[in-house]
Amino acid sequence: MTNTIFRLQSHKFSTDNIQTTLVCSKCDEVFSKEFPLDLEGQTIEFKCPVCNSTGEADLPYKSAEEREELEEDFDEVEEEDGGEEFEEDY
Ligand SMILES: [Zn+2]
Description:
Blueprint: E1 4-13, E2 17-24, E3 30-36, E4 43-47, E5 54-58, H1 64-80, H2 84-88
Parallel strand pairs: 1-5
Antiparallel strand pairs: 1-2, 2-3, 4-5
This protein binds zinc ion.
Zinc ion (ZN) binds at residues 24, 26-27, 29, 48, 50-51, 53.
């Protein structure tokens, strides 16, 4: 059995989903698809929107750069308000 593979051509993380551009190994068509952020780094199965054959795609992890940005934001919050009030929020 030959599995169809959706190769990841490009991707972008938004605040609430992963926007990907994929290439179908069966029909060679390029298409765009969005996935929930929860699926980051996972292999998922879905049907090609062009030829309708079932295949798998490996979703990317958020890049180190994007993670660093989040950490920097967090540091700023700590500097601004390092007192007891901040701890209570947790
Ligand atoms: Zn296809």
